[in-house]
Write a structure and sequence with these properties.
The protein is mainly α. The chain is about 75% helix and about 0% strand. The relative contact order is 0.10.
């Protein structure tokens, strides 16, 4: 008897198209924001039609929210892959700061999307059922490092994970978000790789000086 069911190749093609649409949306939302990016642009970049974008994601607002959740999930996943629990606390903190700085530098679209969401006063983030849970891991990771360091009297007992995260993130975020203006005003002609290495080392120094008694 002939089996009438979904063709595995068709499912693969559909999944591939959905991923192309999603990646296209990340690029265009980062470039133009929610209001500036059009569904037709997203479809064209993905090599498909607006109808297929609507089929997979319903509305532009829903697609934007999925993108927002995705970029946060990706950075939190990168932190978990560092396996810092087995490292001595100071080494773990250095690794986390360096990795955070490098991640921001390598993912400018993440920065742009977060900037756009802040310009919208976090309107879509408030609608997400998963973002608070996803991002809690950032503080859990820091709390583990801090507690291990505090028990060994390596870190000041008055510091907390939230403040360290803000300090670490702000240094990394500024490097990318203000790169064009800061470079043009103060570092025109500087070697970009050397500047990244310089500011990454500075970020480590700033965090450790804040943490250490």
């Amino acid at each position: 008897m002939e089996h009438h069911g979904s063709n595995p190749e068709e499912k693969t093609d559909e999944a591939s198209l959905k991923e192309k649409i999603f990646n296209s949306a990340i690029t265009l939302f980062a470039e133009y924001g929610l209001n500036g990016a059009r569904m037709e642009q997203i479809a064209e970049k993905a090599g498909t039609t607006k109808r297929m974008v609507v089929y997979h994601f319903k509305t532009k607002e829903n697609l934007y929210l999925r993108v927002l959740e995705h970029v946060y999930t990706e950075i939190r996943a990168s932190e978990k892959q560092l396996n810092l629990a087995g490292m001595p606390p100071v080494e773990a903190m250095v690794q986390l700061v360096e990795s955070t700085f490098d991640y921001h530098a390598a993912h400018p679209d993440f920065i742009r999307i977060i900037c756009m969401e802040n310009m919208q006063r976090g309107r879509f983030m408030q609608q997400s059922a998963v973002l608070r849970t996803v991002n809690r891991s950032a503080l859990d990771l820091l709390e583990d490092i801090l507690q291990r360091g505090q028990r060994k009297q390596l870190f000041n007992n008055t510091v907390n994970a939230r403040d360290v995260h803000r300090l670490m993130s702000s240094f990394s975020f500024h490097f990318v978000a203000n790169s064009y203006t800061f470079t043009l005003l103060f570092e025109d002609g500087a070697d970009s790789a050397a500047q990244q290495a310089h500011y990454r080392a500075m970020a480590v120094q700033v965090v450790l000086r804040y943490l250490c008694p």
